[in-house]
Amino acid sequence: MLIKDLEDGNYLSMNEKGAVFGMIHDPYEVEKLFDNKEAFFNDLELGNFSIEQYYNKKMGG
Prior knowledge:
This protein is 30% helix and 39% strand. The chain is an alpha+beta fold. The model has no long low-confidence stretch (mean pLDDT 92).
């Protein structure tokens, strides 16, 4: 399941068990960010995780 297309071939995705992953293409990396979707959405809501900040960190920005 795709959560967010970060543009330019990078994604946030979720597997069938609800774990959330960052999928970065250059260099190729699959990074488990959260064990379950509840933790992911909780951290988004609390401001403990920002998709934009994650993307910028991975892209060197």
